Amino acid sequence: LDIFDNLPWPGVEGRIVILIDDGTATGSTKRAAVEALRQLRAGRIFVASPVAALCTLRQLWPAVDEIVAVITPANLIGVGQWYADFTPTTEDEVRRLLEDARRPDIIAAGA
Question: What distance in Å separates the CA atoms of residue 20 and residue 18, rounded to the nearest whole number?
Fold first, then answer.
Protein backbone atom coordinates (compact mmCIF):
# COMPACT_ATOMS: atom_id res chain seq x y z
CA LEU A 1 0.00 0.00 0.00
CA ASP A 2 1.49 3.28 -1.11
CA ILE A 3 -1.01 5.67 0.43
CA PHE A 4 1.21 8.66 -0.13
CA ASP A 5 1.38 8.06 -3.90
CA ASN A 6 3.67 10.85 -5.10
CA LEU A 7 3.17 13.13 -2.12
CA PRO A 8 6.30 14.16 -0.21
CA TRP A 9 6.69 12.71 3.25
CA PRO A 10 6.12 15.28 5.96
CA GLY A 11 9.31 16.41 7.67
CA VAL A 12 9.51 15.29 11.30
CA GLU A 13 13.01 16.38 12.31
CA GLY A 14 12.80 18.23 15.61
CA ARG A 15 8.99 18.14 15.58
CA ILE A 16 6.49 16.60 17.96
CA VAL A 17 4.94 13.50 16.42
CA ILE A 18 1.75 11.91 17.71
CA LEU A 19 1.25 8.28 16.66
CA ILE A 20 -2.41 7.37 16.91
CA ASP A 21 -3.76 3.89 16.32
CA ASP A 22 -7.05 2.11 16.93
CA GLY A 23 -5.37 -0.04 19.56
CA THR A 24 -2.15 -1.56 20.80
CA ALA A 25 -1.98 -5.30 21.32
CA THR A 26 1.59 -6.53 20.73
CA GLY A 27 3.01 -3.08 19.98
CA SER A 28 5.15 -4.33 17.08
CA THR A 29 3.75 -1.79 14.62
CA LYS A 30 4.24 1.08 17.07
CA ARG A 31 7.78 -0.02 17.92
CA ALA A 32 8.68 -0.06 14.21
CA ALA A 33 7.12 3.37 13.70
CA VAL A 34 8.91 4.80 16.74
CA GLU A 35 12.23 3.41 15.55
CA ALA A 36 11.72 4.96 12.10
CA LEU A 37 10.76 8.30 13.66
CA ARG A 38 13.86 8.27 15.86
CA GLN A 39 16.01 7.65 12.77
CA LEU A 40 14.28 10.64 11.14
CA ARG A 41 15.18 12.66 14.26
CA ALA A 42 11.68 13.41 15.46
CA GLY A 43 11.73 15.78 18.42
CA ARG A 44 9.24 14.17 20.79
CA ILE A 45 7.10 11.13 20.16
CA PHE A 46 3.69 10.65 21.74
CA VAL A 47 1.73 7.41 21.34
CA ALA A 48 -2.06 7.30 21.74
CA SER A 49 -4.60 4.48 21.57
CA PRO A 50 -8.15 4.09 22.83
CA VAL A 51 -7.27 0.58 24.03
CA ALA A 52 -3.86 -0.91 24.76
CA ALA A 53 -2.42 -3.92 26.55
CA LEU A 54 -0.86 -2.75 29.79
CA CYS A 55 2.17 -5.05 29.48
CA THR A 56 2.84 -3.73 25.96
CA LEU A 57 2.68 -0.12 27.15
CA ARG A 58 5.23 -0.91 29.85
CA GLN A 59 7.59 -2.28 27.18
CA LEU A 60 6.99 0.67 24.87
CA TRP A 61 7.36 3.37 27.51
CA PRO A 62 11.19 3.72 27.43
CA ALA A 63 11.14 4.37 23.66
CA VAL A 64 8.63 7.26 23.66
CA ASP A 65 8.06 10.54 25.46
CA GLU A 66 4.37 10.12 26.34
CA ILE A 67 1.73 7.41 26.16
CA VAL A 68 -2.01 7.98 26.31
CA ALA A 69 -4.40 5.02 26.50
CA VAL A 70 -8.02 5.18 27.60
CA ILE A 71 -8.53 1.48 28.40
CA THR A 72 -5.62 -0.73 29.51
CA PRO A 73 -6.88 -4.26 30.10
CA ALA A 74 -4.44 -6.74 31.62
CA ASN A 75 -5.46 -9.46 29.15
CA LEU A 76 -6.05 -7.85 25.77
CA ILE A 77 -6.96 -10.64 23.34
CA GLY A 78 -7.66 -8.40 20.37
CA VAL A 79 -8.27 -4.75 19.71
CA GLY A 80 -11.49 -5.43 17.80
CA GLN A 81 -13.23 -6.82 20.87
CA TRP A 82 -13.38 -3.29 22.28
CA TYR A 83 -15.28 -1.83 19.30
CA ALA A 84 -18.94 -2.16 18.34
CA ASP A 85 -17.85 -1.69 14.68
CA PHE A 86 -14.30 -2.64 13.73
CA THR A 87 -14.76 -2.39 9.96
CA PRO A 88 -11.41 -1.83 8.22
CA THR A 89 -10.73 1.54 6.63
CA THR A 90 -10.29 1.21 2.87
CA GLU A 91 -7.22 2.42 0.99
CA ASP A 92 -9.39 4.96 -0.83
CA GLU A 93 -10.67 6.35 2.50
CA VAL A 94 -7.10 6.69 3.78
CA ARG A 95 -6.00 8.48 0.60
CA ARG A 96 -8.98 10.87 0.82
CA LEU A 97 -8.27 11.65 4.48
CA LEU A 98 -4.59 12.30 3.76
CA GLU A 99 -5.49 14.55 0.84
CA ASP A 100 -8.00 16.42 3.00
CA ALA A 101 -5.41 16.87 5.73
CA ARG A 102 -3.23 18.80 3.27
CA ARG A 103 -6.02 21.16 2.17
CA PRO A 104 -5.64 24.62 3.73
CA ASP A 105 -9.39 25.25 3.73
CA ILE A 106 -10.06 22.15 5.81
CA ILE A 107 -7.13 22.79 8.16
CA ALA A 108 -8.31 26.40 8.73
CA ALA A 109 -11.87 25.24 9.44
CA GLY A 110 -10.63 22.66 11.95
CA ALA A 111 -12.55 19.87 10.24
Answer: 6
